[in-house]
Write a structure and sequence with these properties.
Elements lengths: L1 H10 L4 H12 L15 H7 L23 H14 L7 H12 L15 H14 L13 H11 L3 H7 L7 E3 L8 H6 L4 H10 L4 E5 L5 E4 L3 H15 L3 H17 L3 H11 L13 H12 L5 E5 L2 E2 L2 E2 L2 E5 L10 E9 L1 H4 L3 H6 L2 H5 L2 H24 L5 E9 L3 E4 L7
Helix pairs in contact: 4-5, 4-6, 7-8, 7-11, 12-13
Length: 420
């Protein structure tokens, strides 16, 4: 309550923020201020300013200003080349650096009328500074200045129906859509307005943790997570939900390290069965599908210090489920590349009760016809995807994994394939 009262004191009546903007408004009315260009002002604040500053125009979605507050790929390449020349760095690393920054920092789009995406300038400058000073890429690709974005995701998740919407943002196959971006975000609106999907999704857009991805066949605006850095913020929130204890996280990290280096999926599947899936109560079991399983593995395995994590990568004419590609600057270590394909089957399909399912070993489950068929389908897809990755070239040490989930209770998988 005190936080809300303090906010009202600042933006209403003769509060500090409102008084400041009133003075700016007055100064722009022939009193010495010719033009005003404020940036970084929350739409929530602007909505609550009312008459204090009701002359502002929002330029953020106009096509001509699309790249005003972000770097284009051309600009960033020039900056990387200049940094390499100025600090005697290997110019041959520019392409690799740009590829890494494209995955982690690119992806922002502020109008559906422009196709080019722009790079986050805070992150890009952080990368350039680290590379110039140390002659190496930053080990932590997230600048601490963006840690606040995680709190914004948490805030929206705590709003009514916000949890469901925030989790849906991780699904690339059915991205969030809005008919149009909401433009009223005053505190009263946020406390009293209906929590429509458009309202919540637009709030995430203005917070910078979703971005425009064009329009769908209905003409709706499609919103998506822009890059790996922002995806990490969503994933960490789910990690803490599913595995909240220190012991859980310690075990997860140990099992992930084992998987990264050896491809041994058994212990990790045990953890998911015993701990992760337990956070789902009975009403959640209706969502027992490939998306939930894939999200569980993405959340558990996510590690941007080692990998470029790609959900639904385009591989030929199909889309893989989850690809862990070793970062270029980490290939000197004993890390394997991993491609996972997921299938889900129901209790009805396997002809078992929940108690019978729990009593069977993985070897017994693997022989069930519905499970065996699902594994074969996944293996056939993985074989095609492997050919696509091989044809593309590159120094991959690829292991493939077919995983079948039965009612969010049991996991069956094939052994990791031989690397090449």
């Amino acid at each position: 309550a005190r936080g809300a009262d303090r906010y009202h004191e600042l933006v209403e009546s003769e509060g500090t923020i409102k008084t400041f903007f009133k003075a700016v408004k007055a100064g722009a009315e022939g009193r010495g201020i010719d033009r005003v260009f404020p940036t970084g002002v929350s739409p929530v604040v602007l909505s609550d300013m009312t008459s204090g500053y009701n002359v502002a125009e929002d330029l953020s979605q106009r096509p001509r200003f699309h790249d005003l507050c972000g770097f284009t790929g051309t600009e960033l390449r020039a900056a990387l080349e200049a940094t390499a020349a100025a600090h005697d760095l290997d110019a041959g690393l520019v392409d690799a650096a740009l590829d890494l920054m494209r995955d982690f920092y690119n992806g922002y789009r502020f109008t559906s009328q422009r196709e080019e995406r722009v790079y986050n300038p805070t992150l890009a400058l952080y990368f350039l500074k680290q590379w110039a000073e140390n002659g190496a890429y930053p080990e932590q690709l997230l600048d601490d200045n963006l840690a606040m974005d995680r709190n914004r995701i948490q805030y929206v998740a705590r709003l009514p129906h916000g949890e469901t919407l925030v989790n849906r943002a991780l699904d690339p196959t059915e991205p969030l859509t809005v008919s149009q971006l909401v433009n009223r975000f005053g505190v009263r609106d946020m406390l009293t307005a209906p929590r429509t999907p458009d309202f919540l999704a637009t709030l995430l857009y203005y917070f910078g943790v979703l971005t425009l991805a064009g329009r769908n066949e209905l003409g709706e605006l499609v919103l998506t997570i822009p890059n790996q850095v922002i995806r990490k913020l969503y994933v960490e929130r789910l990690q803490e939900q599913a595995l909240p204890d220190y012991g859980d996280q310690e075990q997860r990290q140990a099992l992930c390290r084992r998987f990264y280096a050896t491809g041994d999926l058994g212990p990790l599947c045990d953890l998911l069965e015993q701990r992760y899936f337990k956070v789902f109560d009975n009403r959640d079991l209706r969502w027992s599908n490939e998306l939930v399983v894939k999200t569980a593995f993405l959340v558990t395995l996510f590690n941007d210090a080692f990998y470029l994590m790609d959900s639904e990568p385009a591989l030929g004419r199909g889309y893989g489920d989850l690809l862990l590609r070793v970062r270029p600057d980490m290939r000197q270590y004993t890390l394997l590349d991993h491609l996972l394909e997921f299938k889900a089957v129901s209790l009805k399909a396997v002809g078992l009760t929940s108690a019978e399912l729990a009593a069977k070993t993985r070897e017994e489950l693997r022989t069930l016809p519905a499970v065996a068929d699902a594994l074969r389908d996944a293996q056939a897809q993985l074989a095609r995807y492997r050919q696509t990755l091989e044809a593309a070239g590159g120094p991959l040490k690829l292991h493939t994994h077919a995983v079948v989930c039965i009612r969010l209770e049991r996991l069956v998988f094939t052994d990791a394939s031989d690397c090449y």
